Amino acid sequence: MISPLPARTAIVTGASSGVGLYAAKALAGRGWHVIMACRDVDKAHRAAGALGIDASRVSVMHVDLGMQSSVRAFAAAFQAMGRSLDALVCNAAVYKPRLEAPERSPEGYEISVATNHFGHFLLCHLLLDDLARVPGARLITLGTVTANSEEFGGKVPIPAPANLGDLKGLEAGFTAPISMIDGGAFKAGKAYKDSKLCNMIMSRELHRRYNVSTGIVFNTLYPGCVADTALFRDTPRAFQRIFPWFQKYITKGYVTQELSGERVAQVVADAEFMQSGVHWSWGNRQQPGRKPFAQALSERASNQERNDRLWTLSMQMVGLG
């Protein structure tokens, strides 16, 4: 009797709610085993149960991406399991637009950049060898229109578009009193946008540096505007009511959490997404039956000299440089 092939394994960060949770559901439904990497383990168990995800298809593991020691502990714990790693999905994010003063990670870094960028950057490096051992493994990162000035959402000036400037804040060490990558005054909403721009830049850099030598597929995607997830829990209540309505009926950019999760699963698992170095998008305005396409990134994500410097400084910030 021929033994069945072992299930492919994906790690999905931030899988206790929103896009990450529904991506876990979609991948488990395709027969994958999903490591739900979350800060709140109990919440993740409850959420998976509420969606009826087959418990044998998931493992819930703790990680706090805003704490580098936690990221290292998570990577070590995963590697101790002895599983192969077919995909890493960098989905988790914090967004705290109402902060008037920066919240800081244990390392002293502004929390949006510490969690969304540094935490994932470190995790990618710690698991790169695991991915490289699996032919055609994929490292997929959630992007956003608000970090790409080639798209309408990236031009919105509230509080300011994503802009890393000359990386003066990172060059100066990025600890108090510095809170912004460009060294400017603290703007919580812009800090989030900047962190997501870093995610998209680093995905391209990983592709440029490692795709040929490892065969890993490095891509980002924007699944559409998922306007009603826990990402927006720290926004004003009025915003939480109005924003989904605005995206559904005015911009037409709204997608459900379930559809966003299915789109992530497609980019992780389907053969048509094997090209590396792509930012996949379904567009700002959702259209029935629309096919995904490769979306161009802005000059702010394509300046090679600055990207090299961002890579070097990020390596230093996570203790790898």
Explain what the structure shows.
The chain is built from nine helices and eight strands. Strand 1, helix 1 (18-29) and strand 2 (33-38) form a beta-alpha-beta unit. 47% of the residues are buried. Helix 1 (18-29) packs across helix 8 (257-269), helix 3 packs parallel to helix 4 and helix 6 (188-214) crosses helix 9. The chain is α/β, with parallel strands linked by helices and 321 residues long. It has helices at residues 18-29, 41-50, 68-81, 111-132, 168-171, 188-214, 237-251, 257-269, 304-317, and strands spanning 9-13, 33-38, 58-62, 87-90, 138-142, 217-222, 278-281, 293-294. The chain is globular, with a radius of gyration of 18 Å. An eight-stranded mixed β-sheet has the order 3-2-1-4-5-6-7-8, sandwiched between helices. It is 41% helix and 12% strand.
Structure keywords:
alpha/beta, 8-stranded mixed sheet, 9 helices
Instruction: Kindly report the oligomeric state of this protein.
Output: single chain
pLDDT < 50 stretches = none
What would the principal axes of the Cα set say about the shape?
globular
Number of strands: 8
Mean pLDDT: 89
The N- to C-terminal Cα distance equals 50 Å
Instruction: Please write the string of helix (H) and strand (E) elements.
Output: EHEHEHEHEHHEHHEEH
Radius of gyration: 18 Å
- Structural classification: alpha/beta
- Which range does the strand content fall in? 5-15%
Please tally the helical runs, counting DSSP H or I stretches of 4 or more residues.
9
Approximately how much helix is present in the residues? 40-55%
Record the strand order, biggest sheet.
Answer: 3-2-1-4-5-6-7-8
How many strands, which pairing sense, and closed or not: the largest β-sheet?
Answer: 8 strands, mixed
